[in-house]
Queue: 3 jobs
Job 1
Amino acid sequence: MIGIHVENEGLARAVIADGRGTIKASCREQCESPERIVEVMAGLVNRLSGEYLVRSIGIAAPGLVHERGIAFALKLRWRNLPLAEPLETVTGIPVYVESTARASVTAERWTRMGTRVEPDQPDDESDCGRSDARRATRGGLSTTARPQRGGDA
């Protein structure tokens, strides 16, 4: 899997990791233009995928995000930006898009670094949360073995 994180400053960082989450390689490139972001991400994927079989690409992006792209990223001033379909077309690899906060919670669950609310629960039922106020107010919450979205019941 290749993971790409689009940061609030327009920096795109990409890593390739194995099934255990061990990072095998990484690279980054600055991109402040929404018109170039898919091209930049495709270049990162090409640089990383030479030695490894890549089955999927995950994108973590700031702001309001839906499963196909960015609805609105305040600090980047990007609106209605499709990411999944154009990157899938260029690379031929399935692409999944998620908010930075929700992707962080998923990573916490995978690496078992999240705070467990009830330590006696089985791992797949434990709750965890993550917040990051260094660059923006954001956070995520995972309950009953799945990250929650705004509006989830």
Note: The longest strand covers residues 23-30.
Job 2
Amino acid sequence: MSAAIIIVNANIHKTVDNVAATSRIAAARETAYSAGCRHIPLDPSQKIHTLEIFMKRIRLAVLAALTLAFTGALQANEELATKSGCMACHKVDAKVLGPGLKEVAAKYKGDKKAEAMLIEKVKKGGMGTWGPIPMPPNGHIKDEDIKMLVKWVLALK
């Protein structure tokens, strides 16, 4: 009789363990599903792996979005430079009448005062830094556009 009780108690214990394991698996599946993962873990140990995959996907999506935004900003600033008349005398990679914009960026790289100085030079015009041809004043360009253009030029590599 005592052997039968032990077997029954062991079976009840196994049943309790199976229910607990099943609920852990269900909880892991629910967590993965709510996190947007397609792979539903079959056991609780896969929960961490699934969340790591999900986080990697999130990081890649954010990186892709930032790359597109930065590329779009570069394109928009080149369009602004063209619209503002800058590209009549400057090109990004080559000297025309004025220096190439990458050359300007290289000259002022690391100079903390360069941005403010170049904003003033673009507004008021200048002469002598890059040769005898003067840069005319650009009063027709809005101040915020000049600031954006100067930041764009200084960020070129």
Note: Confidence is low (pLDDT under 50) at residues 1-17.
Job 3
Amino acid sequence: LRINQKPCEKGGWYGRRHHIRKRVGVKGIGGQDARENLPHESIRTHGLGHPPGRGLVERGVSVGEGALDAGITGLDLLLDSRSKAVQVADLAFGHSTFRFAGPMGRFQKLSDLQGLRVATAYPHLVEDYLQRQQINVHLVQLDGAVESAVQLGVADAVADVVSTGTTLRLAGLEIFGEVMLESSAQLIAAPGSSAKTQTILQRLRGVVVARQYVIFDYDCPVELVEAAAEITPGIESPTVSPTKDAGWVAVRALVERGLTNQKMDELYQLGARAILVSAIHAARI
């Protein structure tokens, strides 16, 4: 499977998708990374959360029109493109939240936007959402620095990606109304091509699992195995193996990455020793 990938303006997502592409063992078109190539399929990755502004091909339209078999893009860009591409799977990374924001104290609810100007880099996404809410606005499309639109006098409010809200506050804006969209990375396919994505889907899920879990290996007194298994139950069950010392066993289990230190402390207090933690490069669960 080949990935044709143009650099994205936001280096964080570009680095993440480049890393994932290499981890699933696929090759970049044009000689980028001589990796394993899955025949007869092509895939393009797109930026999440921040539109690169490089035309429709960067917003999932190539996949929707069948020019590419599959792609990785953000739900935000997919919806904004109004592409015919099919959502195959949520890849559970690249999360972003879309909110409305306006001058401090001016807006309380979405209906306050009626008839006003709203700046955004996602005009179709915002338009479709507001139409469902039966709110009519004048959309002002911008490619970047959306939070400055109100200060510049080109809009009354903005609709944009929000993380901590610090950038909006520095621009004199506050969030109001409901969350417009919770976005994340999606594997998409051209109409009728979903079956071609199953191999790459399994690989992508393997990479996602590898990011979520680590491997615990430790020695445990035989009489404490049941208690240790309560601390590290693994996915189905921990693996317990005999050691040279009949009074001890070796235990291996998957543990959520975010619980690493907590679980190590609990195991050590229980009586486990030689506790080692290893990263996972790929997995099939």
Note: The chain has eight helices and 15 strands.
